[in-house]
Design a protein that fits this description.
- This protein is mainly β.
- Helix content is 8%, strand content 54%.
- The strands form 6 sheets. A 9-stranded antiparallel beta sheet has the order 3-4-5-6-7-8-9-10-11, covered by helices on one side.
Length: 450
């Protein structure tokens, strides 16, 4: 084969989709005359998007959605793969427009020395063919040397093809020195197709093994979300110092205690009885961890023996004006027996709290507590039954939230009558008081500042 006297760059009059074709070719001899023609049949080419120059857009989209594929269902996987295909098709269309040489402008400034090279390039492409419209802008600023490189690129592309509209933008900043490298990359992708729309934004910063960033995703027919990849998440107010609101330990994310404003967690945010002694370290809650003077008074009393009478647990506490009080009292009922002609009956003990002080005596709402029977047998009379109740513990936790004047106040619990409820629902008074008494009485009064 002899080289041709003149070689022309390929010129495509029209860019079409990949199809099979037949070429009529002939060899040219040394005399310059063509030989016999032959027909060569070519199969439709397969476009490999990864081989097309400028396909960083495609890779950016795959990086953006790749980590999401594991948690998504088959349909959403198919949608994302379809989106990546659209972006790859746009990249192929961009390269085809380059080859066609139509409506393409390139501005380049380049300098090269013995050990370094500098390049500034602006490239714009605009093309309309049939129902397709394509606009691309690529800006590159780069420098390279023997052991270092740095580059800033900005790529913007918009394409309409049939019933598909797609817009992408990729900005990146990269620097390398020997084995050390880092990059910052921002990506925007918006696609609209008959099956729905997809919009995503990703920002990533990479330095060797460290890779942090976040991405935002919204799509038709699925929840939108924001995902953050970071070892720590800092918040800084205007003019303030940054602080880490979250920490990651062993792959888990934890909220730091320093992000809570003092006094912002009130009793309304903590369930009753949620914090128990098994959740506290011995010596862990000291006076310097409590609001100053938050507990204004505290008294406690215990009665080990049997207490018989109308009231139990009477304690006096000096109250402060404007404070509130909590009473926590418990006691064990001694065994009591009641005779009735109903074999199936339920028993209740009526109890109420009484407060006595400078403003007088106040009785509060009457509450019933169940007395489960533990022994039922026939009494001396064949038609009657003996029900033995008691031996259970009753605990009362009560809040006095009234705004009282200062002074000494006594708090106690009155044991009222015993009520029997038959299986028919009829109530009878089994006893006007719990005559058998109670034991193991413990009462604790504690006053708190509002």
């Amino acid at each position: 084969w002899a080289p041709l006297a003149q070689v022309y760059a390929p010129k495509l009059s029209q860019v079409v989709e990949p199809r099979a074709m037949s070429l009529r070719v002939a060899a040219v001899g040394a005399s310059g005359l063509p030989g016999a023609y032959a027909v060569v049949d070519l199969d439709a080419p397969t476009i490999d998007a990864s081989k097309v120059p400028g396909m960083e857009i495609v890779q950016g989209v795959k990086d953006l959605v790749g980590t999401q594929l594991v948690a998504m269902d088959a349909q959403r996987r198919a949608d994302i793969e379809t989106l990546a295909t659209h972006v790859a098709t746009m990249g192929a269309a961009t390269e085809a427009a380059r080859l066609a040489g139509e409506n393409r402008v390139t501005i380049k400034a380049e300098a090269e020395g013995a050990a370094a090279r500098a390049l500034v390039q602006e490239e714009v492409i605009a093309r309309v063919s049939g129902d397709e419209a394509l606009a691309v802008s690529i800006s590159t600023v780069s420098v390279t040397a023997t052991n270092a490189a740095a580059a800033v690129t900005a790529e913007q592309a918009a394409r309409i093809a049939g019933d598909t509209a797609l817009a992408t933008r990729v900005d990146s900043v990269e620097a390398t020195l020997g084995a050390v490298s880092g990059s910052v990359r921002a990506e925007w992708v918006v696609a609209a197709t008959p099956s729905g729309a997809f919009a995503a934004y990703q920002l990533r910063a990479r330095v060797e093994a460290s890779d942090v960033g976040f991405f935002v995703v919204a799509q038709s027919g699925a929840p939108g979300y924001v995902a953050i990849d970071a070892d720590r998440f800092f918040i800084r107010s205007s003019g303030g110092s940054p602080f880490a609101a979250f920490d990651t330990v062993g792959g888990n994310v934890y909220m730091r205690a320093s992000m809570y404003l003092d006094g912002s967690i009130t009793t309304a945010k903590v369930a009753a009885g949620a914090i128990t002694t098994d959740r506290l370290t011995v010596g862990g809650v000291t006076t310097d961890r409590l609001y100053p003077n938050s507990v204004t008074a505290s008294v406690a009393g215990t009665w080990a023996g049997t207490t018989v009478g109308g009231s139990v647990g009477g304690l006096t506490i000096p109250r402060t004006s404007g404070a509130w009080l909590k009473m926590d009292i418990s006691f064990r009922l001694n065994e009591g027996g009641y005779t009735t002609d109903a074999i199936s009956s339920r028993y209740f003990l009526e109890i109420r709290v009484v407060r006595a002080g400078p403003s007088g005596t106040t009785t509060f709402e009457t509450v019933r507590y169940a007395l489960p029977p533990f022994h039922i047998f026939l009494s001396a009379s064949p038609s009657n039954y003996q029900h033995n109740v008691g031996l259970n513990e009753i605990r009362i936790q009560w809040i006095d939230n009234e705004n009282l004047s200062a002074g000494n106040y006594e708090y106690k619990v009155e044991l009222l009558r015993v009520i029997m409820v038959r299986n028919t629902g009829v109530e009878d008074v089994a006893a006007t008081s719990y005559a058998n008494g109670v034991s193991r009485v413990v009462n604790h009064l504690m006053e708190f500042k509002r």
